[in-house]
Amino acid sequence: MMGPAHSLSGAAAWLGVGAAAAAAGHPMPWPVLAVGALICAGAALAPDLDHKAATISRAFGPVSRTLCEVVDKLSYAVYKATRTQGDPRRSGGHRTLTHTWLWAVLVGAGASALAITGGRWAVLAILFVHMVLAVEGLLWRAARVSSDILVWLLGATSAWILADILHKPGNGSDWLFTAPGQEYLWLGLPIVLGAIVHDIGDALTVSGCPILWPIPVGRKRWYPVGPPKPMRFRAGSWVELKVLMPVFMLLGGIGCLGALGVI
């Protein structure tokens, strides 16, 4: 799928989690719901860091472009080292390592560890990166025609304001994990969810997605998970733009209302 659909699906997924948490008797404070949805929207773009034309690869200028090259080479190296005879030969790392459940868990765990050990500046860094990506994804057309510096300023300002709101007592810095020193440990959860939602979205497209790696399926370790081929669509097609994106917006709205206890 394309960036806007990925971001919308990520935000909708976290709002759905908020509704489920409320139904289970552990509602999210509204800042956790809002910040988590934005982080998840940004994280839903992150697996495409292995593709030089992706939104995330150009979102942070030379830094993200260089990181993209590194991640692409790493992904390709891992693919070549672990492929079986049933896996096809390929010339690049797109839709390999970064499009797996294992990558999602490792990145989310790393973010959580950074948040609880790095203090306020680590939290600000995590928020900044994902706020910029959320702007790039959710406001795709507006972000495309604006200056990168303006997008970065918006991301930095949002991160600073949201960090201050979360830090106030009762606003959710210790949501879910309440032991001393575990503030912001939950920040890794929307990152994991965003990456998994991205992978599921890509699995619906023609090429499928190797979400299950390194678990082998049949003769393939990089099995492209997906529905039956007649049910798949091409990225950017009318199915994505006219059907899935409105559905994501509807589900996100319902999830938000459920999370806030309105329905």
Automatic annotation (TrEMBL):
GO MF assignments: hydrolase activity
A Pfam family annotated for this UniProt entry: YdjM
Keyword line: Hydrolase, Membrane, Transmembrane, Transmembrane helix
Segments crossing the lipid bilayer: 32-49, 97-116, 122-142, 149-167, 241-262
Keyword Zinc: no
Name by which UniProt lists this protein: Metal-dependent hydrolase
Organism whose genome encodes this protein: Streptomyces pathocidini
